[in-house]
Amino acid sequence: MANDSERIFESGDEAFASMFRVAREAKGLTQDDVARHMSMRNYDFHQQTVYKIENGRRRVTVGEGVELASLVGLPVEALADRFPDSPESLANNVKEAGRTFGEELFDMADSMRALRAIRDEYVHAVRRYAEHPTAWAANSDGARVPQSVIFESLALFDGIQAYATSWQELLNNSDARRTLAAVGWDPAEAHETAI
User: Fold this and answer.
1) Does 189 lie in the same domain as 139?
2) N or C: fewer beta carbons within 10 Å in the chain?
3) Domain end (from 27, 49, 80)
4) Does 117 share its domain with 96?
5) How far apart are CA 102 and CA 190, in angstroms?
6) Does residue 101 share a domain with residue 55?
């Protein structure tokens, strides 16, 4: 028989009751902890209230559901989903999406290096052009475009480069790599695949 995080539920109420218990236990909270938390937020909750909710003997109001979901750090929809994905399925989705993201990120970083070299050549050419006494740049209406505008637009490229660089730095950080590995994605594997 599938565990509660993998089974199909008859109703959203049944799903909420069962999945809340799973999430509460995963957070290390007792039914008493939940009752205290809810009581502090002016809900009439006791340990028995939580027990009844988790065993399908008491429904929750919308407000209670939102507060309980917040307590375990999940959206209400995740707790009330009648067709939850298995943890393995979710981990595989993360790994596959991460692999694709990593491959594209490394490809983008390589492209950014090539673009930077081309951009530098362009900037050099624009500067030489702007230094010529009779040269001027014009937009499609024939109006003169100040040199500062040209260089400001080129500076936007630096923001894209910084984005790619920050992701590369993150992926080279051992703590970040361990965190990503915990959800089943190895950035080194993605980089090797991208090469």
Assistant:
1) yes
2) N
3) 80
4) yes
5) 5
6) no
pLDDT tens-digit map of 147-160: 666 677 667 667 77
Number of domain units in the chain: 2
Written in H, E and C, the secondary structure of the chain is: CCCCCCCCCCCHHHHHHHHHHHHHHHCCCCHHHHHHHHHHCCCCCCHHHHHHHHCCCCCCCHHHHHHHHHHCCCCHHHHHCCCCCCHHHHHHHHHHHHHHHHHHHHHHHHHHHHHHHHHHHHHHHHHHHHHCCCCCCECCCCCECCHHHHHHHHHHHHHHHHHHHHHHHHHCCHHHHHHHHHCCCCHHHHHHHHC
Query: Average model confidence (pLDDT) for the chain?
Result: 77
- Does any domain span residue 149? yes
- Go through the chain and tell me how many residues it has: 195
Of the pLDDT bands very low, low, confident and very high (cuts 50, 70, 90), residue 21 is very high
Is 157 part of any domain? Answer: yes
51-109 pLDDT tens trace: 999 998 999 999 999 999 999 999 888 888 877 766 666 667 777 777 777 777 777 77
